[in-house]
Records
---
Amino acid sequence: MKLAWFAALAAFIPLAVLAAVKSGAHPRAVTPPPKTNPVHSRPRALPEAVSEPEFAVHSVSEIIAALPDHVRDLKGYLGDWLKLEAALISDPESVLPVLLDRYAREADPAYKGLLAVLLAAHPSTHRRILEDFRSETGESRELFQGMALFALVAGRRDPRESGEPFWPRLIDLMDFASKEMALKRRILDAPGDGEARRLLDELQGISRWRSGDGEIWCYVSIDRDKVVRDEVGATNDPDVRSTLLDVLGKKWEWNLISHVAQWALRDSAKSDRDFAGTLFREFMDRGDRDLMLKGLDLLMGVELPAEHVATVASIARNSLADRKVFLNAVDLLGAQKGAESEAILADVYAMTRNHEDFKETVLTAMISHKGASFEPIATVELTSSSSDVRARALELLAEVNAAASIEPVVHAFISDPDHEVRCSALAILTTANRWTPREEEALRRVAASDPHPHLREKARRLRDAEKRGEIDWWLDLDRELSAE
């Protein structure tokens, strides 16, 4: 069973402390999966405070002329910025010419990129933004290109529905990216520039110290890209789709550009199965392993046209010796629905009897698929020697036959020797939220005597909670316990 709250945990925890002990190591954050929010399917919502903009004191031209010179100062003009966006939607004939002129004159790539996102509130500007994206070249222009590409595939969260306003977070992202890119280029031009390295570490929140012959570093990873990822959605514009594919074929200094392209293409494939087939052929029909891996990653979670399922099955069956290809192909099989993919996954499972790590991936794909015929497989794997496989087997059984899973889940919750499996069992019980007498008794036992202090504390708080179906407190507890 895919536990939605558990998978979403990373989105609720913006800070993660990472550490490594290796000279010259470079930290890298994993990008979580995207949220679909198509720009072409709904208008952008505006806050109530600016839905009817009034310029009683200053005209649009005066407000635009008064905007600050630097991105870092824009947050102090947020009210005027929101008024411009609202006016652009309500009275484009008056606002567009002045705002387009300001956009055309802007030399700072980051600032011009933010203006592109602002202009994109009116669809008539999209062609101009696309042409500017294509015509800009050089690393110094990537901050503009990233925002221009985002502008073409971005929806807009209604500020009334979120405690994290869109524009301040986007301005913060661009201010950070501008400083980071400038320091990286300074270091590239002068590798011995210790001051630039110190400033970059300070900006990125990295601490370093020597330990013997190596170097220890740690940093606080802030998911600054989330403000973009949350707003990227599908596009049905063939020119934009073509541009997104071109982006994936290039290397970028600012990796957000390729991320935006990937998120938008994936969402477009999810909403348009014919386009999913087009992408599949684009990446799978050339016999190139690297291209195949890129395609499998891009199509993660996408349901393909039926004629391509057999090809994915063939890739999986023929790649047991190529771990990465096998795992990605099986993951894609899990997104395919129907009897054919269900039978294929059962067949692939039979091939993994001596590969516990591969078996876990197959079970995870079965959880995504939800095929009823997987119940016997789940039951068999409850006694696996691998704790990861046991945990996935519990989730699979709970997904395909919730009633039959109660006793195995309770048994694992009380007595599995691995606390991670017991945690998985607790997550299943919490998500099901049915609390039979047997489950209540198990919860009391674990809360009183589980050997793992974090699991015991989770069980205790769940036992005492008035509304167990509300999980905000659970996520707060995970943050609290992880920080200890």
---
Amino acid sequence: MRGDPGVASLLEQLTQQRLHLWRSEKISQADYKNPHRVFVRFRIDRSLCSGLVQASSQEEALDIFLDIQFGLHKKEAEILTLLRLPVPRIRTFPFFVICEEILRNVGQKLAANYWPQHPKNIEAIRAWLVDFLCYRREIIRTRVPELEPVVPSALTNQRVLGLYDPSAGAITLRYYRSMEDTDIVDVREERTETPFGPHDNKLFEELFDLPPQVELLREVRQCSGAGRMTYREWGHPYFVAADELRQHIERYNRYLPGTYQDATYVTDARLYDWTSSEIRLIRELSQRFPEVGEHFRNFMHPVEVIHVYQLDEPRETWIRNGSISIYYMRGPADRVSTIRLNVGEEFRHAVNILENKFGLHKRNVFLKIDTHILWYLRDKADID
């Protein structure tokens, strides 16, 4: 197909088609659930094209992969992405999980401090859009390069055309693919009798030199009502970009085989890795955004983290669960420790160890988390 919708959109379309075939009894349930596919993006004669091919097996997927590679080479097409599916799911921890917490707890303060830097309406909207596009590319390239086939257009430069009616509090934005070396953002103030709606295409044609329709990536409309500055409801562009990409990841992961684990997946080494990466990222974002550092101020000092966990007694046909308690407290240096209790051992034994070995007292703990291990794994390891 012509265009560049990304692998998640094509997976969604193919899944719906195969679901219809299965319900019509034209394919078996095993065929419907078959995850072996090949995704391709290529450019030929200045046109972008994408495709997703269903394979019957892993071996056939390899053959299709090689045939596409060879065929496009003969046609002198530029292959942008050639991917055999399924691939491992994209992890949302630590970056997207922590950004989601920041947006939930500090989002309003981040936005409140961002907008005063751009007091004028049109300049503010333009600045936000430029920052959003740059931050989104940065996050993909530095945090999740494997996200590129999911949102390929996000890595290219874009041309954003917009109309803003302050009297109605209405904004319409059109995002186009651009072949220019930089992003182009052109937003204009236009007062109308009614908010921009289905008939605003005429305004766009009158005010802008519109690119071809095939280059349109998406259109966004927002209206908050007369007298309200609609764009001021947007959050900080960095964390809005992170949240948008998190939603793309969740959508993409839905069409990939799940990862099924029980509480035995937890090990001392994994707990150390997850906690250390979490603390490093919090400090990195805190240095960049002071509001984040204020929220996580206890993490700006050396932190001692202690995990106490215990697996439930195994039962036939049951998914094994367990309990975990995590204590965060100030310490002389960063340290991550674990205490694993045997099945049946009471938690009061751990309390004695915490007090005697680590000098743990309630007044020293600035954060304590108690949860089931399976819930903990859903957060840290994207376990189903």
---
Amino acid sequence: MLNNITKSILIIIQGLCFAIAGGTLIFMLFYQLDTLTMRLWDESRNAANALEMYYNHNYIVKHYLGKPDMWELKPPFLVWTQQISLHLFGINEFAIRLPSVLAIVALAVALFGVAKKHSQYVFIGFLVVLNLALNPGIFGAHIARFGDHDALLCLFSFGSIYAFYRWSLKPDSLKWSAWFWVFLAFAWLTKSIVALFFGPAWIIYLLLSKKLFIFIKNRTFWIGFAGFLIIPALYYLWHEILTPGYLNEVWNHELFNRYAGNRPEYHTDHSQFFIYFQSIWGRLGNWYFLLPLCIVLSFRKTANAHFMRYLLLCSVCTLLVISYGPKNFWYDAVVLVLLILLNVLALSEIFSLLKNRIYQWIFVVVVLIITLAFNLKNYSTIKKSNVFDVNIEQDDTMYKLAYLLRDETFYKENDSINLLYNDMEAPLRFYIIKLQKEQKKVIREWMHPKPKDLTLSTYYTNDTAIVAMAKSIGYTAKDIDYQCYKLKKEIK
């Protein structure tokens, strides 16, 4: 009788945990997902690429301003998913960001499965999902709620990291070998060479575990490696045939030259080498205090010590790798995922050490209270990062103009618009194409003003030759709603 009651209580508790963790994740992902306009850099460029692909049906060569895009050189897997989403949900921000959202959902499911398997506790699985859902780094700019590459990269990179670990335990395993190379290939098709940033960690891990030569002599390794090379190579060669010069641009602007800072536009400030190690504490949220405990527990003789050491190795090596190259705060996204998993595994080890059932329940209650307190603070941090709400006063003029172009009342009142902007301001490009194709609006870009047309300019163009040219033909800059620049005919 008591056993049945206990089982019923456990089922109810698990149901509540599922509702809390799953509900929090869904809320954090979907709440006002389409509120913000497209953001610089990669999201808006990807959106413009996807929208041009939507109309021109060229699924190999990404286009921008109607021409092959030789600036955004990454392979097109993300853009493929976005243009499919555009067909399903229409031309809007939700469709552009949905692939990233679904990638985080899939990542949460994967983390739940891995945490449950290695801890043997469903509770730990729910905890890792909850901590993922309220992580300030993952839910800040450029990752979970945006159309950048990094959400998909997190999914595929975590898949390759875990598959490699399972494969290393059984080097003859065809299953985990296949999964590793598949995840790695998709990671490359998502964000190019970044897929290999974990390579040094894998080599060191194999050396430490004395399995490097076992892998090298394994036929499965070479078959998978050949397959991995063929998939990206076919794409690059096909692209080069269609747009000669593409491979040269990839080499100079996407691969090693960019990483090493060998070109002026990608200069790396090595005095900031440890910036990722310094920022990881804040981006991990309030759980950073568990990291020293993770290090200690990974060197104890526990069930998960080996796996925890592997996660630590991957995290530290990857931070060192990205520290050498260009600095963008969201490059640590995959490391955050590994550290979130590492933290909950440390909690599961503590739980296992408590043999008394009463102590275990007390521990669970304490962890839940701390989790609630920490994650409420994390939510406050995420909310302040302006990923949910529009803040017109703080947004750049370019974004204000994007809101204006998106405003139905505005574009219905203006059939013809002159738009003066920098061609790197990709957030505007998305709305320009949408207005031209869906609303059949006449938008004359750059310097083709007509006297009766409304003429708008952005911040980047306000102090440049473009505005000087506008003034030379009788237009002057005036401040308007959304603080864009309205160029009106001067009254003399």
